[in-house]
Amino acid sequence: MRExxxxxxxxxxxxxxxxxxxxKGPSTEDSARSSxxxxxxxxxxxxxxKQAAAAQEKNRMQPGEWENTFQLVSxxxxxxxxxxxxxxxxxxxxxxxxxxxxxxxEDAKAMDFTKLAPATQGCTFPKYVMANGKVxxxxxxxxxxxxxxxTINGTQSPSSYDxxxxxxxxxxxxxxxxxxxxxxxxxxLGECKG
Length: 194
What we know:
The chain is of the alpha+beta class. The chain is built from five helices and eight strands. It has an eight-stranded antiparallel beta sheet with strand order 1-4-5-6-7-8-2-3. Strand 5 and strand 6 form a beta hairpin. Helix 2 runs parallel beside helix 3.
């Protein structure tokens, strides 16, 4: 997976933080803006993006030096060609890849969530909850290679994140479901050097 794809995935996962206070009812743009929390069920991607944009000021990551890791935890692709299955199995055995980056204050400026629209076109969110430092989301999308279901679970704070994303897909005309799980983590190490 390319780094830009990973960033989009982490951002999608990090749009929110999770299940707490289920009795509070659904959030609105105003409540997301004031609390930084999002609680939605059976929502369109557009609704989630609007509330994520409203809540981002409360959920902004701290500038500084960050260490990020990415790992393909598992990949079960029964209908895929054997060469691809072997390659994915090998990737899943590798340790997490780690990178470091300096996130400057200007990098924390408001993000244009409309840029994520192409990645979520045709998608709905049966659940999207971000609260109390946790993320709990389910996304369902229609795609050219069959319907896709994605679950996003983890934690997020201004100085760290730990997200696990599981994707399930059954190709058109097929009965074998592919399932892939990835984990992305990050932590702020301190101020940028130099």
